[in-house]
Amino acid sequence: MIDFSKKPLFLAPLAGYSDIALRGVVKRFGCDVTTSEMISANALAYNNDKTLHMLKKHDLEKPYIVQIAGSDKENVKKAVEILNKFDFIDGIDLNCGCPVPKAVKQNIGSSLLKDIDLLTKIVDTIKKYSNKKYTSVKIRLGFDEKIPEILAKNIENCGVDYIAIHGRTRNGGYKSKVDYEAILRAKNAVNIPVIANGDISSKNATDVLEQTRADGLMIGRASIGNPWIFYEIKTGKSIDKDTRRYIILCHFDEIMSHYGDKGVAIFRKHLHEYSKSMSDASVFRNEINHTNSASLMIKSIEDFF
Question: Name one Pfam family in it (predicted).
């Protein structure tokens, strides 16, 4: 389902943003592979209703990857066994890149980069019990030092199908310069597909592919308020004003379909991102912050954009 010869574009898991609505939008406009928001293996293991709700898949999502985070082998096993029940899930991805302190304190996300033995045991657990087509891992270059070759090789030895690599260490957060050469080092160390991630835009996407020799690109924060980035990378064309408005309205429609009346309030954060750097954005944001009607929200979007 994933044709790496065509350098596919992935939507990265984005907490609070890459829900079913955004995933449905980017699938319409050039994204090849979508990934769920990061889902706690512990919460899955205990059948948390909110967590199960996050698993829902959009009709357009194929393939659809679910990303889990966990470091307890028994709970990861239970989580995988629950995911096995959902035929619409095509792959399971292990998060080894989340840098936030809360994740590190729980010994999940990028904290696993400090314990390669535990990391590989968790991947082995997923591989052993999963009935999905794909097993993958998303990593950073390391926790505080760059060890991309060591990480990539150990993960490859677990039998995963591909690796996504964010070109910063955990300590680099989101502000340090992305090291694409380090992603290339990982690529040269393994024989499985490597997906490059980190500060990728429609302007540098081709250069990143050349620098890293990656088999695909994963777009994260650059898609927030800019879901047409996938279309722009694929076509080399910028969208016009009418297309932008159409995509924003499509996103709002997806939000309302999934969340019902709550969608109006939920969509405000997206409109804040869509309106960034536009003239009179502050007036528009103040207007939509006090809008609770879907029809009035649509009118505000049509008038402003």
Answer: Dus
